[in-house]
UniProtKB/TrEMBL annotation:
Domain of life (superkingdom): Eukaryota
Organism in which the protein naturally occurs: Aspergillus cavernicola
Name the record gives this protein: Mating locus protein
Length: 256
């Protein structure tokens, strides 16, 4: 552990032991300290502490509270076999954390190679974005769970969506260009937004985007391929939600 991390832990220990501070703040400080063993990432540690003392919540609730069977009237239970078929079609392999409904931690699926492309402050900014989006991801998962019941594909899909969104905002896949960093940032943003609106972007559509951005095609395709590869669970989630909405309209609960 580096010297800076040790200093942060001393600060967390002081916060945890200060009876004059709000209990919620002390519990979250304890969570940050305890969770370091699972990720061992000094930049995430700094990002969590920064978020905590800027008034943000970093300790999120578990999402699966009804056990494996749950309420049989919930949409995910009524249409479970169909949802599983969609998950299988997308070749998604949920993790133990997805089945258990643990709070989403975006760093858990972040490729370590992504971080090695950055230096210093840029790594910290990436982890800041991950911590901020983690909060939104858990709020979205709680909302889906209230609406449909808990399903592991919701957690897996949101985990992928917000991790890739954070990376796309903070890591540039395009090579250095004489037109400057602003050009690279804008070009990647256009490439991202194109696939965000049309997940199954075809070659002709990609060609139009390349004409608009005038970036190196190889770089754009590398970015698109990375995005598509890391959003299989998200696409499966979107398909499941779309189906649930259609089925709810066709067979509402009071007609079951």
């Amino acid at each position: 552990m580096d010297c800076f991390s040790r200093t942060i832990f001393m600060f967390l220990d002081a916060t945890i032991g200060n009876a004059g501070l709000p209990l919620e703040l002390r519990e979250q400080a304890a969570y940050i300290s305890a969770s370091f063993a699972s990720h061992n990432n000094s930049y995430r540690l700094m990002a969590q502490v920064s978020a905590l003392f800027n008034g943000s919540n970093v300790l999120h609730s578990s999402h699966r509270v009804g056990g494996i069977n749950g309420d049989v009237l919930l949409p995910v239970r009524r249409h479970g076999p169909i949802l599983q078929a969609i998950v299988n079609d997308h070749r998604v392999a949920p993790t133990a954390a997805d089945f258990e409904g643990r709070p989403i931690e975006l760093v858990s699926i972040l490729d370590p190679a992504i971080q090695t492309t950055l230096e210093g402050a840029k790594v910290f900014k990436l982890h800041q974005a991950l911590v901020v989006m983690e909060k939104t991801a858990n709020e979205d998962l709680a909302r889906y769970t209230r609406q449909y019941g808990y399903h592991h594909i919701f957690r897996a899909g949101l985990n992928q969506y917000y991790m890739t969104k954070a990376v796309a905002e903070k890591v540039n896949f395009l090579r250095q260009d004489p037109r400057g960093d602003a050009f690279r940032v804008q070009s990647q943003k256009i490439c991202y937004e194109a696939m965000e609106r049309h997940p199954n972007l075809n070659d002709a559509e990609k060609g139009i985007v390349l004409q608009i951005t005038n970036c190196v095609p190889e770089d754009a395709h590398r970015f698109w391929n990375w995005l598509a590869r890391n959003r299989a669970s998200y696409r499966a989630m979107k398909a499941c939600i779309s189906l649930l909405d259609r089925l709810q309209c066709k067979w509402p609960l009071n007609a079951a």
